[in-house]
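Fresh eyes needed here. I'd like your take on this protein's tokenised backbone:
***
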Amino acid sequence: MKKLSWHYKKLIFKFKKKIDLDKDLLSSNNLNELFNHYGSDKGTMVNHPYGREEEKIVGHGFGDYYEKYFKNLRNENFNLLEIGTWKGASLAAFKKYFLKAYIYGLDRNFKFQYKSDKIRFYNCDTTKKSDLQIIEKKFENKKFKIIIDDGSHFLNDIISNLRFFFRFLDKKGIYVIEDFRHPEYYKFLDDSKKKELNVTEIIEKFKKKEFFQSELLTKDDQLILMKNIKIISSYKGIKKDKDINVSDIAFIEKN
């Protein structure tokens, strides 16, 4: 029954009318403005994601950090991958900002509402081995200059995604993890049952080239990551929850 439901959703998604970004004349060299316009919580004052145009919501304010690292790529031809797209607001913004890039998105839901000659969307649940095997074949000969994990924010998923997707990062590419401290702020997102370090601790171990206990990252996995990571930088955004800043983003630069 679940398989039938998936095929039904896929069929509906295929024929559902989508917003054609290639016909959208909006243009901006400011990534934060694009995030705000399309309703991505990567922005600052974001158009409401459920169509209530009179309302704005405070986003994470990650736009300036993205521009800091990727402004020089604006006119370059490269591949960008985002894990966790929901309706596709951030991919729409990236498509408008990176003028020659090819944009790829993965999500377990069929909510994606855009189309473009430069965008490819794949339905993928990164917790399922069968889905990852399909993606591995599709990306077999592909490298990405930018990979962004804005997925579930569950601790095990963040760690597992890094282990699986880092191999597809191009030389001198950057792997971005949004909201990497969410499992610290929201305990239900820490699904490791105390078997894994939090991402903040893992980052520090990578910086110091120190091995650590993990059921998801073997010693060989850790060695590969340590050898290939040049530098890790993390920043605070602006979004608060009960007076606590809950916005964190990490940029992992590959050698």
